[in-house]
Amino acid sequence: MKFKLIYPKWEKLEGQTIFNLPPHGPVVMAAALPAYVDIEFVDENVDTLTYDDDADFIGISMMLTGQIKRGWQIATEYRKRGKKVIFGGISTMLHAEETLEYADSIFLGEAEGRLEQVFEDFKNNKLQKVYNYLAVHPDINTIGPARRSILNKEKYYHKGVRMVDLFHASRGCKYNCYPCAVAYLGGKCFRPRPIDRVVEELATIDNNRLFIVDNSLAQDKQWELDLFREMIPFKKNWCSHPIEDDDEVLDLAAQAGAWFVYQAVFDTSDYIRDRVKRYHDHGIAVEGTILLGTDDHTEDDIKRLIDFLLEINLDLAEFTVLTPFPHTKAYDDLLRQNRIIDKDWNHFNAGKVVIQPKHMTPERLQELYHYAWDTFYKDETQSEKMFKLFRSVIMKEIANGTYKPIREEMANNSFGQKVKR
Amino acid sequence: MIKHFNKDLNSDYFNEVYDFKGQWDVPSRCGLKVVKNENQTVVVATELYAENPGTSVTNFCAPLATVICDDFNIDHQTMVFIVHTPDAKSKLSFMNENFFRVDFTRDGKKFTDPKWSQIEKSKVDELIGITQKQ
After folding, report:
1. Among all residues of chain B, which has the CA nearest to that of A96?
2. Distance CA A120, CA A132 (A)
3. Rounded Cα gap, residues A8 and A63, in angstroms
């Protein structure tokens, strides 16, 4: 049986460097497919999608809210051609009711151990409208290596440099952060994968640079220590979300190849200043993730926050505006207050203001968002700062003997497209 | 009955933890206080945040109000439904305590189309008969 799995494209944020990373959800899903299923994967961000093909069954995997309208379009085209379409992935779960209108079936939850039933039903023309596994998570021991062989690896290069591969060591999250839907999607309980299964997966990845996509690694200190200890021999360099603020953990993380972390910077406190310094003391760079437009932010607060970012020597900063994704407290609060002013899901990209801020107009928040990017990168551009970060990882790789030179034959190529240098 | 509940949260506004099937039948939970007065029944449904494994009260307001109405034999015409978001003990102002009265459209035996309006805590206290502490 031929199964065509499509990852819809989305509109990239204006003015930002475009990077297309190999997606994670589809490769995790593909690992759970029955053996008799032949899969063709199309990442519309790097591949051209054509509709007239011989696939038996169409899957659409969506991670971002900004993908869903495109996903619905694709489904509509295939259904016109008489193909059955099933949706899955994070944003299918966040937008399930709406997506159902464009689908023959939607899959909610995690795929391991569940796809045999889906494909049996498809073969028997008994596809169910909803496969609902939201409330019951699969045994964490059953989560094996993702199936990265479905990716066209040549497409994930920018000017000869290979992008990081995505990888996960846990699911769920015990935190319940204001703008985040992970607790709804993966459960409010941290579910670390057994270390031996993580090691098994690491051994399958030929990329020496990774993005550990777990929501926060700082959820179980002993597991974190065990994980980093076991990662050391692999000599990977990686970025991740926050690591435990603990010298022993940070030291082991650095030995295990921690390259940089995404750290939320939500105020101008000494706590944040010290947190960033401690990462730096361990040789771990920091990309600040800064959310603008919460109810605590006046214009002055935002400007003060940006000055603070420059003071604490962040290696990179990424600014977003508060965006109320469904199944977050932010969404609930703003919904009750009737402050969601734009319901076009394509605008829910965290770069466009879709809410009425408490202390300013939406237009002013939009201006401050651009001001934040411009001010932070005024003296040293984003490309220059990225280059410094990139140089640091090359130095580490040269030191431990894992450096792979850039591919000169792809120097004029970016994500499968020719570029001018 | 409320042994799992974070005791830091204000319990003046719930008497029990109410389990319900949320969106897509996900097991979900809220705090609940039902006060039957002479002319109306006041229902306060409290968001439990981390203690709720599933759908929030806000996200499931109309179906939840319908189920509570049926469970407690409440006359839907005299029900006053209030969503309580308790103080999460954070320095962030948007984690402070708030109350919202919810008005619905009645469609057959169901509530639909929730509309929220924020109300003062003193008004809620008045509705449920809490005497203001001096």
Report:
1. B24
2. 16
3. 9
User: Which stretches of A290-328 are DSSP H helices?
Assistant: 299-311
Average pLDDT over residues B93-97: 88
What span, in angstroms and rounded, lies between the C-alpha atoms of A93 and A50? 26
Task: List helix spans (H) across A345-401.
Answer: 362-376, 382-400
Fill in the DSSP letter of residue A344.
-
Q: What is the pLDDT of residue B132?
A: 57
Which of A28, A87, A39, A83 lies closest to A60 in space, CA to CA? A87
Q: Do the chains contact at B94 and A337, CB–CB below 8 Å?
A: no
Three-state secondary structure call for residue B17: strand
Strands B27-36, B16-21: pairing is: antiparallel
User: How large is the ipTM?
Assistant: 0.89
Q: Average model confidence (pLDDT) for chain A? A: 96
Task: Take residue A102 and report the two structure tokens written for it.
Answer: 């464009």
Which residue has 């792979």 as its token pair?
Answer: A404
Cβ neighbours of B100 in A, within 8 Å:
336
Residues A178, B53: C-beta atoms closer than 8 Å: no
Q: Which residues contact A415 (CB under 8 A, 6 or more apart)?
A: A18, A20, A45, A46, A155, A156, A157, A158
Distance between CA atoms of residues A264 and A318, nearest Å: 10
Give me the residue from A108, A135, A336 closest to B100, CB to CB: A336
Contacting residues for B41 by C-beta, under 8 A, at least 6 apart: B34, B35, B72, B74, B75, B78, B79, B80
Q: Which of A100, A174, A184, A271 to mutate to test the interface with B (most CBs of B within 10 A)?
A: A184
Across the range A216-244, mean pLDDT stands at: 97
Q: Are the Cβ atoms of B50 and A183 closer than 8 angstroms?
A: yes
| A309/A323 Cα distance (integer angstroms) | 22
Interface of chain B against chain A, CB under 8 Å?
23-27, 47, 49-50, 53-56, 58-59, 83, 85, 92-95, 100, 116, 118
Give the pLDDT score at A18.
82
Question: Rg of chain A over CA atoms, in angstroms?
Answer: 22
Query: What is the per-residue pLDDT for B90?
Result: 83
Tens of pLDDT, residues A51-93: 988 999 999 999 999 999 999 999 999 999 999 999 999 999 9
Q: Helix or strand or coil: residue B3?
A: coil
Q: A106 to chain B: nearest residue by CA?
A: B24
Least Cα separation, residue A155 to chain B (angstroms): 37
Q: Is the pLDDT of residue A29 over 90?
A: yes
Reduced to 3 states, what is the DSSP secondary structure of residue B68?
helix
Angle at A169 between CA A168 and CA A170, to 5 degrees: 100
Q: What is the pTM of this model?
A: 0.94
DSSP string computed for A100-154: HTT-SEEEES--TTTHHHHHHHHHTT---SEEE-SS-PPPGGG-----GGGS-GG
pLDDT of B1 higher than 80: no
Helical packing angle, A221-231 and A247-255, nearest 10°: 20
Q: Do A326 and B59 touch (CB under 8 A)?
A: yes
